[in-house]
Amino acid sequence: MDSADLAALQAARDWRRAGHGVRLYTVVETWGSAPRPPGAMLALRDDGALAGSVSGGCVEDDLVWRQRREPPTALPELLVYGVSRDEAARFGLPCGGTLRLLGESLATADWLDELLARCRAHERVMRCLDVGSGAVDLRPAPRDAVLRWDGQTLCSVHGPRWRLLLIGAGQLSQCVATIAALLDFELLVCDPREEYGQEWSAPAVQRVPGMPDDAVLAIEADEHTAIVALTHDPKLDDMALLSALQSAAFYVGALGSRASTHARRERLALFELTPAEIARLHGPVGLPIGSRTPAEIAVSVMAEIVAERSALVRGGARTAGCVASA
């Protein structure tokens, strides 16, 4: 779940609590090119305030205009944009794209409280909306769950933001954090060394106290978590990897040359790790783009993490342990 959709739900909950009328829009289908994917959300307050996004801006403007022109319906309604090429151009939909939105008026914020609390607990939740009654049902979402829309029921999948735990708070970690923030990752860092306890110039991160292995356990690394060891200190990096490789984290990587990575794999084999768990390690970390500087290495690291994330979202998998010239 990206931060724009999370912001839409949080705003809708807060506005409804404050007594405002709120309408929630969800992208249910797209054809051709579309600015936002199915599942993207927008909250529209009764005075025209917006949170979230369903397009590049023109559709949002039209939704505000519609609301000011006539009161929205109490029950959910379907809106279609970009049926013709002229309309697609008018609403900023590229390549003749078509966008279908389902709009619903929020009578209560109760289900929003529960949904947001479960997302904060790193749960995956399926929200099913009955178009005929406007009733909402929340249920656990299996790993392979995707948005479903049959014209009568909308089942959308909600879950935690993708997050990245960095082991080490040096210059390279700050470069990685800067790029990861732009890619909408929640950022965490662990570094027990006193000399790395200073404030970052990079985007704000949550400091996880303790030793690296304890940090991995403390955050309860799940399938929305990536972990990268960047201290260049085998004692610290290996501590994190021992816990990370046994966790559900979708990506585990460690900085180092081919020789040091080979030695690390041999050390890890001395502990209670299976060959399959050791094979999950991405090392040398990052895609092979000829990177040398900290910024270039950060690009290669985040490119590989995004590739793994995309494969996971599609239901596939890439091969771990890609070689990079970091």
Total of DSSP H or I helical runs spanning 4+ residues: 10
- Average pLDDT rating: 87
Beta-strand share of residues? 15-25%
Provide the low-confidence segments as ranges: 316-326
User: Structural class given helices, strands, pairing?
Assistant: alpha/beta
| Distance linking N and C termini | 30 Å
Q: Quick one: how many beta strands?
A: 15
Shape annotation: elongated
Count of all domains: 2
The largest sheet has its strands arranged as: 12-11-10-13-14-15
Order of helices and strands: HEEEHEHEHEEEEEHEEHEHEHHEH
Major sheet attributes: 6 strands, parallel
The percent range for helix content is 25-40%
Summarize it:
By secondary structure, the protein is of the alpha/beta class.
Written account of the structure:
There is one protein chain. This protein is of the alpha/beta class. The chain has two domains: 3-158, no CATH class; 163-314, 3-Layer(aba) Sandwich (Rossmann fold). The protein has ten helices and 15 strands. The protein has helices at residues 3-17, 58-69, 85-90, 110-120, 171-182, 212-218, 234-244, 258-268, 275-279, 294-314; strands at residues 22-31, 41-45, 50-52, 77-81, 98-105, 125-130, 136-140, 148-149, 153-158, 163-167, 186-190, 206-207, 225-229, 251-254, 281-282. Helix 1 packs antiparallel against helix 4 (110-120) and helix 5 (171-182) crosses helix 10. Residues 15-64 form the XdhC- CoxI domain. Residues 164-305 form the XdhC Rossmann domain. This is Xanthine dehydrogenase accessory factor.
